[in-house]
Amino acid sequence: MKATIRWAGDVKFEAESGSGHTVTIDGPPEYGGNNQGVRPMELMLLGVGGCSAFDVMHILKKSRQDVTDCVTQVSAERVDAVPAVFESIHLHFLVSGRGLKEAQVKRAVELSAEKYCSASIMLSKAGVNITHSYEITEAV
Hints:
Blueprint: E1 3-7, E2 13-17, E3 22-25, H1 40-62, E4 66-78, E5 86-98, H2 102-116, H3 118-125, E6 129-138
Parallel strand pairs: 5-6
Antiparallel strand pairs: 1-2, 2-3, 4-5
């Protein structure tokens, strides 16, 4: 896996993944940025949320659950020191579908947390407290 990060002036960067997709990284005005992109630590949270959401949906589809929507809300707390690393991250899954079995949703979240989500497992091994929760709603 590879990525390229190109400086675009001030504290703005264009990041390109090995698969050819780009994202803009920028800082707030107080750090010389123009708020034209995500912050690096926000990007890490997006990666953790995306990785886990991918796993949960993949597992639910394999278990033939009729999912109509899945939203993953990610919140984090950082230590009040430099470096301001993550102290805790919470992932909350809002899963909607028809006739969803709670045991299947619970198992999908657990499997992602304990076995499949490389991003969250890597951060937890580095000392970040990562927790998970979920809600299920019946689709109309």
